[in-house]
Amino acid sequence: MIPIKILLIDDDEGVRTTLKNMIAAFGGYVVAEATGVADGLEKYAVFAPQIIILDIEMGDGTGFDFLIKVPNRNFQLIFSTAFNHFAIKAFKYSAIDYLLKPVDAFELQNSLQKAVANLHQLTLQQQLEIMLQQLSATQTSKQIVLKDLDKTYLVNIKDIIYCMAEGAYTKFFLIPKQAILVSHNLRSYEELLEPAGFIRTHNSYLVNPNCIKVYDKKTDGGILVLEEGHTVPVSLRKKDAVLAFLEKKGGV
Fold it and tell me: How confident is residue 122, by pLDDT bands cut at 50, 70 and 90?
């Protein structure tokens, strides 16, 4: 079996050594190291890695600087970061994997396994565009990346009718008729989609208000009728908030 090539780009020698030792213990990988943006570009040209683990803040620039300059982005990308709420939100929007430092061996192994499984999905360019949109303080992302077991989808946020919790998973219902089940809970998507106006109508439902056609208040908290004939419940606890939102919006 030919080993998978990984390039570690981080200006902290201790971090590189720790990651390299962890990866060596997993087996099946060969690792090259780079100390920053410039060194990373040189090593990338020679080594041709299939997976890059990329630090954000480095002495001669950022991981984003590296990505702007690197040609032929036909690799799997994993960011590593000490802490950066703004960047992490962008990673979640674009479904780009990331690891928080200090890196846990189990999380690293899980990220590498996902990266290997996705080696033939050449969607990084589109994912990076969405990530960079989200990182821009003057622009709100109009797309989100969703992944199920087999595929990666670039979805227009306006085409999401609603999201439904299924345990630790979330099911997205889209226009035109399509459903995608992803392995993250509803709460994580509520944080991402609230800035786009999405409202929580129930413990298990997150709704795009632009897709609401009718609010039927006859029973309990009521029922929302959405695009394409979908219906979702409104809980008694959420009823006042939903009513206030719709009145502010102008009613339905």
Answer: low
Question: Tokens representing 126?
Answer: 């589109």
User: Using one digit for the tens of pLDDT, what is the confidence trace for 15-26?
Assistant: 999 999 999 999
Secondary structure, 3-state, the chain: CCCEEEEEECCCHHHHHHHHHHHHHHCCEEEEEECCHHHHHHHHHHHCCCEEEEECEECCEEHHHHHHHCCCCCCEEEEEECCCHHHHHHHHHHCCEEEECCCCHHHHHHHHHHHHHCCCCCCHHHHHHHHHHHHCCCCCCCEEEEECCCCEEEEEHHHEEEEEEECCEEEEEECCCEEEEECCCHHHHHHHHHHHCCEEEECCEEECHHHEEEEECCCCCCEEEEHHHCEEECCHHHHHHHHHHHHHHCCC
The string of pLDDT tens digits covering residues 136-193 is 654 556 888 898 878 888 899 999 999 999 999 999 999 988 999 998 899 989 988 9
**CA distance readout (Å), 137 to 132, 133, 134, 148, 199:** 10, 8, 7, 29, 23
**Cross-strand partners of 100:** 81
